[in-house]
Amino acid sequence: MKKKSSLRAIHLLKGWGGILTGRSPLMSIEITRECPLSCPGCYAYGDDHLGGEKNLRDLSDFKGDELVERVVDLIRRYRPLHVSLVGGEPMMRHRELETMIPRITALGTFVMLVTSAVIPIPKHWMKFKDFRVTISVDGLPEHHDVRRKPATYQRILRNIEGCDVNVHWTITRPMLERDGYVEEYIRFWSERPEVNFIWVSTYSPQRGEDAVEMLRPEHYDRLIREVPELRRRYPKFLFNEGIARTLLAPPRDPDDCIFSKMSVNYTADLRTRVEPCIFGGDPDCSRCGCAISSALHWIGHRKLAGPLTVGHLVRGSVRVGKFAANLRPGVREALRWERDLAAAAARPDNLVQIASPDNKQEKAAAGD
Ligand code: SF4
Ligand code: SF4
Asked: Taking all residues of the chain, what is their mean pLDDT, rounded to a whole number?
């Protein structure tokens, strides 16, 4: 049976109820500071990722039961529809994930594990409900195996055998300098039986950055030209011309970014928030190539009625949510939009135990 694609207006609207009560539908947690890879351009280890005073490697992180309980507490507090467990390399904590994932999904939150697949993914995890693995594969072996060693193609293919995964690709400039590269990549992963969907982002720089990975205008034009035909021929490829065009007109700033508005992100000490979005630091929104941000921005411009767009609805709801949270003790500290309250909210003595949600487990941002 053909699986349904994921990021659609309906998912945004399903997050609406949560926003109206001041909560974030989307969450990401860097569950460990450890990673055996050292990919060029990795934003998680960038000096500015956490605002400049410290970086991911300087933090103390958690292991064992303490990690599981603290992550589950965060989920209880925010009650997101969807959480991405990232790193570092989250599979460095695979023993903890074994119990953490079912504990989170039992709270009504869909879990996305984002991994380099450098560590084998246990096949029995595929039986977990409301759970999906996304593997990061940055280009064909000529680029990926250099950038992401030791998570080479050969190793990934071995480690995902018998599993069910999505693939995420961050396109960098050198990959668009050869004709046919994009199709070769999409075809290779489309033909893999383990792969459900393929997501594509483009390299998203910090402001003032001038990296060799950054795309030039002609590269975006080329993607816009090539994408509709690829989408038609490879249904696993979750991209369309509208999203591609959004790459040329991304959100003006974090305030204009629906993804930033709808998500809250924690790093490995489980206290520090990654702001204003998963990239942290001072991201250059004008060159943002994030797949989820682009898709939400594109959906945000879809008309609901007359001039009213999904984006208007989300932004209005954020304002209502702030107001509602002020009226409800125990909710205000879980607000996405109150940065100054984040540290206070994270103190164990301030944790508020909130009953499990009764919302349907939702496959929101990148599941199906
Ligand atoms: S696998 Fe991810 S966290 Fe690790 S170095 Fe590469 S991009 Fe960074
Ligand atoms: S996701 Fe992209 S557009 Fe949104 S705040 Fe981050 S860099 Fe800016």
From this structure: 82
User: Residue 17 is which amino acid?
Assistant: G
Which pLDDT score, from 0 to 100, does residue 224 have? Answer: 85
Report the alpha-carbon distance of residue 312 to residue 56 in Å, rounded.
35
Residue 327 lies in a domain: no
Contact between 250 and 14 under an 8 Å Cβ cutoff? The reply is no
pLDDT, tens only, 27-68 = 999 999 999 999 988 999 998 899 888 899 999 999 999 999
90 lines ligand 2 (CB under 6 A): no
With contact defined as beta carbons under 8 Å apart, do 250 and 298 qualify? no
Query: For the chain, what is the domain count?
Result: 1
Protein residue with its CA nearest to atom 4 in ligand 2: 257
**Residues contacting 316, CB < 8 A, separation 6+:** none
In a domain, 105, yes or no: yes
Pocket of ligand 1 (CB under 6 A): 35, 37-39, 42, 44-45, 87-89, 116
> Which of ligand 1's atoms lies nearest the C-alpha of 36?
4
- Atom 3 (ligand 1) nearest CA: 88
Q: What is the pLDDT of residue 347?
A: 39
Which is it for the CA torsion 152, 155, 156, 157, positive or negative? positive
Residues 127 and 146: their CA atoms lie apart, in Å, by 33
Q: Is residue 11 part of a domain?
A: no
User: Which among 134, 82, 48, 97 is positioned nearest to 265, based on CA atoms?
Assistant: 82
In a domain, 45, yes or no: yes
Local confidence band at 349 (pLDDT 50, 70, 90 cut-offs): very low
Residue 110 CB coordination number (10 Å): 24
Report which ligand 2 atom has the smallest distance to the Cα of 284.
7
Which structural domain, as residue segments, surrounds residue 83? 26-288
The answer to whether residue 328 scores a pLDDT higher than 60 is no
Determine if ligand 2 sits within 6 Å of the CB of residue 197: no
pLDDT of residue 340: 37
Could you tell me the distance, in angstroms and rounded to a whole number, from the CA of residue 194 to the centre of ligand 2? 30
Predicted TM-score of the model (pTM): 0.82
Output the domain CATH number for residue 264. 3.20.20.70
Gap between the terminal Cα atoms of the chain: 13
Tokens for 227, please give them.
Answer: 């994408």
